[in-house]
From TrEMBL:
Full protein name: 3-hydroxyacyl-CoA dehydrogenase
SUPFAM superfamilies reported for this sequence: 6-phosphogluconate dehydrogenase C-terminal domain-like (SSF48179), ClpP/crotonase (SSF52096), NAD(P)-binding Rossmann-fold domains (SSF51735)
Known catalytic reactions: a (3S)-3-hydroxyacyl-CoA + NAD(+) = a 3-oxoacyl-CoA + NADH + H(+)
InterPro entries xrefs: 3-OHacyl-CoA_DH_NAD-bd, 3HC_DH_C, 6-PGluconate_DH-like_C_sf, ClpP/crotonase-like_dom_sf, Enoyl-CoA_hydra/iso, FA_oxidation_alpha_subunit, NAD(P)-bd_dom_sf
One GO MF term attached to the UniProt entry: NAD+ binding
Annotated metabolic or biological route of this protein: Lipid metabolism; fatty acid beta-oxidation
Superkingdom field: Bacteria
Amino acid sequence: MTDFTMQKDADGVAVITWDVPGKSMNVLSLDGAGELNALIDDALADDAVKGIVITSGKKDFAAGMDLNVIAEMKEGGAQQVFDGIMSLHHVLRKIERAGMDPKTLKGGKPIAAALPGTALGIGLELPLATHRIFAADNARAKIGLPEIMVGIFPGGGGTIRLSRKLGAMAAAPYLLEGKLSDPKKAKAAGLIDEVVADPLAAARAWVLSATDADLVKPWDAKGYKMPGGEPYHPAGFMTFVGASAMVNGKTMGVYPAAKALLSAVYEGAQVPFDTALRIEARWFTNVLMNPSSTAMIRSLFINKEALEKGANRPEAPDQTVKKVGILGAGMMGAGIAHVSAMAGIQVVLIDANQDNADKGKAYSEGLLDKAISRKKSTPEKKAEVLARITATTDYAALQGCDLIVEAVFEDPAIKAEVTKKAEAVIPADAIFATNTSTLPIGDLAKASARPEQFIGIHFFSPVDKMMLVEIIKGQQTGPVAVAKALDFVRQIRKTPIVVNDARFFYANRCIIPYINEGIRMVAEGVSPVLVENAAKLMGMPLGPLQLVDETSIDLGVKIAKATRAAMGDAYPDGAVDEVLFWMADEGRLGRKSSAGFYAYDADGKRQGLWDGLAARYPQPDDQPDLTTVQHRLMFAQTLEAVRALEDGVLEDIREGDVGAILGWGFAPWSGGPFAWLDMLGAARAVQICDRLTADHGNRFAAPKLLRDMADSGQGFYDRFGGGKKAA
């Protein structure tokens, strides 16, 4: 079976169809590139062929390069990667030149791309090498180059072609941010040429009427000047200075792909096009051989996709949710109702007060109105979604629900009350899920008459934006409940991880020590500026002090009191509590009160770190070095992840890495805490732990599992990767 086939018709049009067997979307492999190359040679050599159209046999054009193939290429080393990329450049450049005379630029055969739907990564890089791109008028289609999101950059000529086509400034959102557009916006931006009802018919007609001039790309024509100016032009110089500042400001220097991409554009703009492609290939190889790209591809593409497809789903019949009941119409319940209704599920949204229930439904209305104002939805879609949500106080409306998601206050008594009310009405085989971030599932399940059908589902706020959902198994939770939760998360298009019941589960178990370590350093007199910037320079999206401001300081106080009550004399965070409790007593509760570790203006905009911290906790001139602060912040999180695996809370390190990145933004460049420890090496990690333990206490003691791996020379993915679970 082949990925590409060609059909020649009597009019002289050769239609090359991309249709990878066994894949829902086309991806390009090296074998597929070879097939395409052979078909292009055939068509160019055939005098009966007047033009070529490249299209897809699927509803979409292509999803990109097969990242599993890229991983295989890396095993052969940098030279094999470079040679493989250059062979792809050769094929695309052959399409671009189309057999034309290199001196006169005449005599070539027109080649067009017909895109029926989504075209991403190489799925856009290939069309960019053709002479005209026709896309279907398909509002659901996405067009763009999202490679930067998984730690690489467009290496199939897309970086050089798009920057030369649009100019560095205009290309930046698509290259450096991975911005995706629907076909009409892609045309307006200059990514594609035409949006039509029938792209294949339009492309066929165009290749039969195209002239020699239609085939010459601007960068191949005499006198070409880069839009916006080359790097040595005054306007271009300012563009690249600004782009460099933007990249370093956003990435803090920890994402190698962004810097490499900008270097490829900058260097490539100063040389002939074919040399620029070699520069792009060299920088792409450089990035691909960087451990960061391996880790990001593995966590954000391969592992994430595997989890979304049910890698750890127990054997059980299909558990697609048809009707969901949501108890509690506050911010969390309203968010769950919205994503459920958007997924086509019937929703019953219950609250003790009808006004609150109506406000919960109005939350969806507000989000839909915003989407309409941005032309991302329609009034018809809004009416359809809102019609699926029934806002009520009547528990009888839960009849027929096959899943209940309880999202009331974090109070065991209230949760127990609504559990019993719901179970009195719902079908005997319905699954009951509690949305909690801290309360043990086993304790909450005591209120249920069906503990095997009781499970935890921890959503992150805001629900409509956060991609992770943490599913928590209680001791008595059965496989059908787990399957139901996983199938529901798949329906609402989020990424699940499944963990076992323990205090704080997985995500909060790791993020609380990160926050606490930052606060602890403030109490020690470490500059808050150093603490916050040390975190950001490691790739954390928010420093620990800003994070606690965002989640609210009084919530931190509540968690601290509950944890101290549960742990007694073993409670380790008294130094942290002194700071938190003082802040709360001062009325500095975080962003919501416009006063926290940061100062805020009258509009609630963050202004900078509050100077009152220095008065309460004087900062000596002798400050710790940056690396020490970074190690304290990073190991506070990663050691807790290792302990979660050791304790059996985590069963799969893939869930640990994906959950860390999506749940609290753990340094995405690293691939997650286990991938980061693998980069560092277990032996080196243990050395750092020993030093931190000697200087700062037993919270940094290396877990036995980490020491064992240091002794054996293993990495986490050596030992537990590929779907293997910890024993």
